[in-house]
Amino acid sequence: MSKKILILTGDAAETLEVFYPYHRLQEAGHEVHIGAPEKRRLQFVVHDFVDGFDTYTEKPGHTWEADVALADVDPADYDALVVPGGRAPEYLRNNPEAQRIVQHFFAQDAPVAATCHGPLILAAAGVLPGRTSSAYPELAIDVETAGGVFEDGGAVVDGKLVTARAWPDNGTWMKAFLAVLDAA
User: Fold this and answer.
1) Where is the DJ-1/PfpI domain (predicted)?
2) Cα dihedral 30→91→41→78 (10° resolution)
3) What span, in angstroms and rounded, lies between the C-alpha atoms of 138 and 116?
4) Cα(first)–Cα(last) distance of the chain, in Å?
5) C-beta of residue 27 within 8 angstroms of C-beta of residue 101
6) Collapsing DSSP states into helix, strand and coil, what is residue 71?
7) Strand 4-8 and strand 80-83: pairing?
8) Closest CA to 173 of 154, 151, 149, 148
């Protein structure tokens, strides 16, 4: 059954963590919208791992139009939420509209997928207490500080919440999310 899904993101989101779920969910027959702080062209980034670096590197990625501004999102119009990572969650977590949207999906016990830095928004929205969540491993402290239980995995399922570490987990993350979505 086709569902309507919102991807909550913004500038500096990880290209692969936006595009993989966007196209994979469309391929499965779902309607997918990109919600961002403003309805405009977004600039995504590419994070990669380079030998000799203590952390990932960042390069400009693709651009893409947002379908809807977060202030105009009625979350009741959507069946599920996807929160990609990259650096976008670092500033989106402070956005009251992003928090409102996330809180709605958790209050409705609707399917939510988050990866990499995406759980930072879940933490800021206050929905992680008692939940098990993956994230970029360096964010374990953020998940735990927000009252969650960190699990270092590529497809961590806690009820209708499906989380992953980063774009190398895209296949297992979306496979698990599609199973949750199909069962919802």
Assistant:
1) 3-178
2) 20
3) 9
4) 10
5) no
6) helix
7) parallel
8) 154
Paired tokens of 11: 């500038």
Q: For residue 139, give the amino acid letter.
A: L
Burial of 73 from C-beta contacts in 10 A (0-12 / 13-18 / 19+): buried
- Quick count: other Cβ atoms within 10 Å of Cβ 24? 19
* 130: nearest Cα among 109, 105, 100, 150: 150
Return the closest-CA partner of residue 29 out of 56, 65, 3. Answer: 3
Taking Cα atoms as reference points, which of 90, 127, 163 lies closest to residue 180?
Answer: 163
By the 8 A CB rule, do 18 and 9 touch?
yes
Look up the domain containing 28 and give its range.
4-183
3-class SS at 31? strand
CATH of the domain at 22: 3.40.50.880
Q: Which residue has tokens 């995504």? A: 44
List the catalytic residues.
116-117
* Sequence letter at residue 111: P
Per DSSP bridges, beta strands 31-36 and 80-83 are unpaired
Instruction: Specify the pTM.
Output: 0.96
Beta bridge partners of 132: 149
The total number of structural domains that make up the chain: 1
Query: Would you state the torsion angle of the CA atoms of residues 74, 78, 80, 83, taken in this order, to the nearest 10 degrees?
Result: -40
Amino acid in position 126: G
